[in-house]
Amino acid sequence: GESVGLHLPTLSVQEGDNSIINCAYSNSASDYFIWYKQESGKGPQFIIDIRSNMDKRQGQRVTVLLNKTVKHLSLQIAATQPGDSAVYFCAEKRNYGQNFVFGPGTRLSVLP
Amino acid sequence: KAGVTQTPRYLIKTRGQQVTLSCSPISGHRSVSWYQQTPGQGLQFLFEYFSETQRNKGNFPGRFSGRQFSNSRSEMNVSTLELGDSALYLCASSLGGPSSTIYFGEGSWLTVV
């Protein structure tokens, strides 16, 4: 099967600081992107999405930035809280239908 | 409204056996897709069903199969289980449009011994 990679990067931030999680995608034809949060023992939870005709989208405490020139996606979390500790995945949609390709994920640890 | 429901949550099978996992999508969602999640390979797409038809398929062997019923509920089956099939199997549902968000269930943890 497809795999973006095996290494799971870790980001540690102080409670209250802003977090930035990055993701590189591979297919310039991808037109829809989603960020998911996965807590231990649970399924991925939708956070925010963005379509390729946008550069930025904001939600509650979260912002997603899309740079199509360098095929880069980032998730910014404002005022990070202990409940934000989880693994965060970016997903790109390549084909018609629901075939999403997921990045390897980034583990976010929030320090007290 | 209720989210995506997967059963069973946990199961242990022996090599060579077969297993069937079930998924009930969010009400009104017609697309169901299945993913396998392992520490080594991450989240990998298995297949997607829309209106009882397989619309997309990932790069998994034929031992992995699925189906969808007229009420959009879906099942996936893995035959002749191997140790490497141990994983979290995730079901996701969506409305099925080109840019529809997919919502995941909590997954079924399969251990093959």
Description:
The complex is a heterodimer of chains A (112) and B (113). By secondary structure, chain A is an all-beta fold. Chain A has strands at 10-14, 19-24, 32-38, 45-51, 56-58, 62-67, 72-77, 86-93, 100-102, 106-111. In chain A, strands 1, 3, 4, 8, 9 and 10 form a 6-stranded mixed beta sheet that branches. In chain A, strands 2-7-6-5 form a 4-stranded antiparallel beta sheet, with no helix packed on it. The radius of gyration of chain A is 14 Å and the shape is globular. Chain A starts with 9 loop residues before the first strand and ends with a strand. By secondary structure, chain B is mainly β. Chain B contains no helices and 11 strands. In chain B, a hairpin with a 5-residue loop joins strand 7 (64-68) and strand 8. Chain B is globular, with a radius of gyration of 13 Å. The mean pLDDT of chain B is 95. The interface between A and B is medium-sized, with 31 and 32 residues.
What is the makeup of the main sheet of chain B?
7 strands, mixed
Portion of residues in beta strands of chain B equals over 45%
* E-strand count of chain B: 11
Tally the helices of chain A.
0
Tell me the Rg of chain A in angstroms: 14 Å
Sequence of secondary-structure elements of chain A: EEEEEEEEEE
Compute the average pLDDT of chain B.
95
SSE pattern of chain B: EEEEEEEEEEE
